[in-house]
Fold:
Amino acid sequence: MNDNVLVKTIQTMNSHLPSRRINLAELLTMEKPGIRGKDNAFFIMEKSELDLISQSLPRFLWSRLRLPMLIEMSPDFGSGSARVQGEPEVELVCKILGKDREYAKQIIIYLPDVRELRRKLPTTTQYAFITNLRDRDDS
Structure:
């Protein structure tokens, strides 16, 4: 497959992603918390989810946690795997999924955990599709 076609396909699959993510502290002050996607659609974030997140994280992390949290899907992570990046994001994922707390900048989670995370946080998480073209074998 031509790399340009692949890049365009992934860009189309990611058109729902926000042009900028907003931190939890700011979202908690909004009357209608949400973000505008690159496709100009407005996605409302449920207050109940924001409350769950704010109860799950210490207040000093609220300004560092950017929402929606991106669940990155890529074949590079292995079949049925996804990545979440950012220290506050990793802490939140561990708390929501009942995992041992990790002090890391990223976490790899597997399909059952992805489903559970999306079930608990449907409006404050989004899928992002990524690929690494540099490592592709075109033979």
Notes: The mean pLDDT is 89. Residues 3-131 form one domain.
